[in-house]
Amino acid sequence: MLNVVINIVYFMLSVALLFAFIRLTKGPSLPDRVVSLELIASIVVGYVGVHAIDTGVSSLLDVAIVIALTAFLTAVGFARFLERGGRKSE
Amino acid sequence: MSELIVAILLLTGAGFMILASVGILRLPDLPTRMHASTKAGAMGAMMTMAGVAVHFADVVVFARAFAIVIFILITAPIAAHVIGRAGYFLGTPLWEGTVKDELKDNYDEKTHKLHSGFEPAPESVIPPPHKKRGEDDEL
Asked: Does ipTM come in above 0.90?
């Protein structure tokens, strides 16, 4: 039963990733893109967790930790860049 | 039994992720999009990590999953605040149906000063004329 559920969850996460990617390409301003990048990182954390269950390799959780860490640092870095006067439009 | 719990947790987490991404796709402006993505996205990741912890049923894995959950709980609000602040200062347009923007009247974009709206008028800052001692002694 868990195999079927894992496949369904993979599909749902892929749909979520697709929606976030549409916003990433469309987003009218740079902060919109940063927010969508953050959501993509958190979806990827979910992917890694599901993949750890799927393969039974629990070391994959370290990857999830690193992805969460870099997503946070990226968000803070982008925000500082924007406040110091990045490109206003785009 | 634990398989059922894991399945429910994973499906709920993925459902929250889909809700977050639908929100980020459909909502009209930056703060509402952030409102959808940060809370629901963090909830989805936390549910998935709970499923991982239940599936492996191991102390080490549980500690790692718990660390991820705590980390997401700490960093998601900070990141959302920082991005929202930067977006507001950049002048990102708000949705035309926005009901309240409290910073708009009280925040000075040039000097980065925030007023509370309760400051006294400048003339009332001048101290009242000095009273002679003995006039308000009836207290």
From this structure: no
